[in-house]
Amino acid sequence: MRDVLYRSVLAVAIVAAIGSGNAYAQSSSKDAVQLDQVSVTAQRREAQMQKTPLSMSVITGPALDRMQIKRVDDIKFTTPNIIIEQNTGTSSGAKIIMRGVGADESMFTNDPAVALYIDDVYIARQNGAMLDLYDVDRIEVLRGPQGTLYGRNATGGAIRYISKKPTGEDKLSFDGSVGNLGRFDGRAMFATRIGETLDVSAAVLSRNRDGIMRDIAQNRWVNDQDVLAGRLAFASTWGEASYATLSIDRLRERSTPAWGTPVMLDANDHVIPKLGSFYKTRSDTLGINDLDQFGVALTSETDFGTFSWRSILHYRTLDHHFYMDVDGTDQMRYHLEQDQKQNQRGYEAQFTSQLEGPFSWVAGVFTFWEHNDQPTRNDIFTRGGTNYIQQDTTAYAVYAQGDYKFNDKLTLTLGGRYSYENKDFSLRAVRANGDPNFTKNLEKSWNRPDWKALLSYNFSDNVMGYASVTTGFKSGGFNGRGTTFATITPVDAETLRAYEVGVKSTLWDNRLRLNADYYRLDYDGIQLTAVNQDGVFVMTNATGALIQGFEVDAQAQLTDKLRVDASIGTIDGEYKNYSAVNAAYFNGRSMKSSPDMQWTLAGTYVQPVGNADLVFSAQARHTDEYYQNQDTSRLIMTRANTEYNARISYEPREANWSVALWGKNLSDEISSTGGFDIANLGVGVIYPNVPRTYGAEFKYRFW
Question: I want to staple 468 with a disulfide (CB 3.0 to 4.6 A). Which of 245, 454, 554, 703 is the partner?
Fold first, then answer.
């Protein structure tokens, strides 16, 4: 911990010196040397980011292009203490972990611990959550438990994707990108007004890339990308005080599964590929990874004068058929198949005060229903039996949060939420020959009050400090991956209490923003999923943990041309509260998914060239080593690594077009994003990151 603290203090000094951060402001030679104001709705009402007493990162405006934020996992280049990677085996599953809190099991019986929202619609499943970020206005990343206002499964934090709303402005634009590995992407956007009040917008995205890994047994490339998505939105006002938006989205993906590569350790603890390259594999099946998603959401807002009423109604479906070879050989050692069908619907009502005065409040009601069913088959050395699994989830919550300003400097925030959740689970196991094996039916409910207490103090107009205590919980569930009657067991809810002290400052005549925080998480009932030595999944509330660390993010407009962004985060995690029977296992063991330190650094330089701007932008991200599983396997762990991205664009000021050259992972760094180490099955594979990619981009606005 001493070394971590030393590096944290040193990092704070470095970041303060260079001045950088996570929200982005456009700059050019004609702009004032200041940062733009950034508005957020993280607390369910609009406020300035620097006036919101919460550790958060915001990406908006030109930064989405200049920092190459194209997909959810690109957010890791802007945010401290976050891991976002593809889940093992699937190109569409998102493994999201903040401050060491998260879930890397994509089965629907295990909920995520970082909540993902699209326009305030909760995305319940990891599968399908690796979203393409197009037609987006901004992204808000809220670190730490959001139990009061966001509720279920937000113990690690929340990521909010806020799309562009139709405004009635006529627009037709297209941008495309080509590059190595057969990259060919295209996006088209259209917007107009129909009649007097109906605003319409539409966006379509196509993302295609050849495979990055060679399957030498099948003589083909795998781990490719083949995605087609679209969004249609309608917005209108009625009466004098009401506004509504209807959005419809659709996604179709036909990428191959994400195959792993077989690896081993040499005598010097180096991971080496068994096939001579980290981008080679062997398989005895072609595999399946077919994903279809559909969603519709109706949001309305009505101004009643003293308060406003916001209503969010949604319905979403997901169909994901997945079959992959886990072992990286052309033998049947371990194959996995699942054919998930999911649908969810929900309604949320939010009420927000609008009166002037020292007291303001937000209150709401949340309802959510979800149904999942899928056949799952584990083929270990031979074709296995099939488990037919279903689960129905019902969740309700009521919440309220209020701010009281004692004076211009001191504000007290108190919030509470009461949540109820019920899960009805059933499993029917059938042997490989079709004979019945066993059945199991489980039903359980969980309820939980969560609360928040926060004091914020304005030391000056530009410096605010805050201290908070917040609780959160992640719902209990069942081990849906168990393959025997005994391993299909319930697990209790995870609970977390977070303590945080932070400061937000705007300095140097609004040219520098510097935010820092210390956090401590008391984490209990951690739901740990593991694959034992025989390839059987087990899931238990095995332990608790104490996690603490520092975070610093900053942003500086150093000149009218140069902008620098940076962040740093540390995690010091220690298992605790384990039972006597587990003491020998957890005592002194490092927590998984918890690198000691991560940092990001980005810069943008705008050079006027005649009537155009030449924009240079670059990003770097470093993460210390961390373990991928609770067994702390050094075979599949992520070793310390640093990745670099860069982009150069030519942007005429009076024209409707621009061009850019871009590159990602320019140092061609190889790192493990996940893996399996199952010794008794002879399985040792990692899933490598995408190697160096580069290409050109073109944008054109027709009107």
Answer: 454
Determine whether 452 is exposed, middle or buried from the number of CB atoms within 10 Å of its CB (0-12, 13-18, 19+): buried
User: Cα–Cα distance between 675 and 684 in angstroms, integer?
Assistant: 7
Of the candidates 133, 186, 130, 1, which has an alpha carbon nearest to the alpha carbon of residue 699? 186
Q: What angle do CA 143, 144, 145 make, to 5 degrees?
A: 130
CA 125/CA 119 separation, integer angstroms: 16
Rounded Cα distance, 519 and 81, in Å: 11
**Residue 558 pLDDT more than 90?**
yes
Between the CA of residue 393 and those of 108, 124, 419, 475, what are the distances in Å?
11, 11, 13, 11
CB atoms under 10 Å from CB of 404, counted, come to 14
Instruction: Read off φ and ψ for residue 16, nearest 5 degrees.
Output: -60, -35
If 0-12 CB within 10 Å is exposed, 13-18 middle and 19+ buried, where does residue 449 land? exposed
Phi-psi region of 665 (alpha: psi -120 to 50; beta: other; left: phi over 0): left
Three-state SS string over 405-470 comes to: ECCCCEEEEEEEEEEEEEEEEEEEEECCCCCEEEEEEEEEEEEEEEEEEEEEEEEECCEEEEEEEE
Length of the chain equals 703
> Cα–Cα distance between 456 and 494 in angstroms, integer?
28
Q: What whole-number distance in Å separates Cα of residue 631 and Cα of residue 340? A: 29
CA-wise closest residue to 153 among 406, 499, 662, 496: 496
Asked if residue 665 lies in contact with residue 642, where contact means CB atoms within 8 angstroms, the answer is: no
- For the chain, what is the mean pLDDT? 91
Q: What is the pTM of this model?
A: 0.93
Q: Provide the b/e sequence for 535-572 (b: ≥16 CB within 10 Å).
A: bbbbbbbbbbbebbbbbbbbbbbbebbbbbbbbbbbbb
Give me 397's structure tokens.
């919550």
C-beta of residue 503 within 8 angstroms of C-beta of residue 650: no
Q: What is the pLDDT of residues 19-38, one digit of tens each?
A: 333 444 443 444 458 888 88
The counts of H helices and E strands in the chain are 3, 42
Whole-angstrom Cα distance, residue 637 to residue 632? 7
**How many C-beta atoms lie closer than 10 Å to residue 26's C-beta?**
15
Q: What is the mean pLDDT of residues 264-275?
A: 96
pLDDT(414) > 50: yes
135: left (phi over 0), alpha (psi -120 to 50) or beta: left
C-alpha atoms less than 13 angstroms from C-alpha of 426 in its C-beta half-sphere: 5
Reading the block at residue 664, the tokens are: 């990602």
Strand partners, 63: none
Q: What integer is the mean pLDDT of 4-11?
A: 44
Q: What is the largest CA-CA distance in the chain?
A: 77
Contacts of 318 (CB under 8 A, 6+ apart): 125, 127, 128, 291, 292, 293, 340, 341, 342, 343
Query: How do 683-688 and 672-678 pair as beta strands?
Result: antiparallel
The residue type of 106 is S
Residues 108 and 129: their CA atoms lie apart, in Å, by 12
Q: What is the pLDDT of residue 3?
A: 52
Q: Which DSSP string do the residues of 504-571 spell out, in sequence order?
A: EEEETTTTEEEEEEEEEEEEEEEEEEEE-TTS-EEEEEEEEEEEEEEEEEEEEE-SSSEEEEEEEEE-
Handedness of CA 208, 141, 319, 340 (dihedral sign): positive
Short-list 153, 258, 245, 143, CA closest to 199: 245
Whole-angstrom distance, CA of residue 187 vs CA of residue 631: 43
Whether the pLDDT of residue 664 is over 50: the answer is: yes
User: What is the rounded distance in angstroms from the CA atom of residue 295 to the CA atom of residue 230?
Assistant: 11
Q: Which two tokens stand for residue 5?
A: 């603290």
Residue carrying structure tokens 């000021």: 653
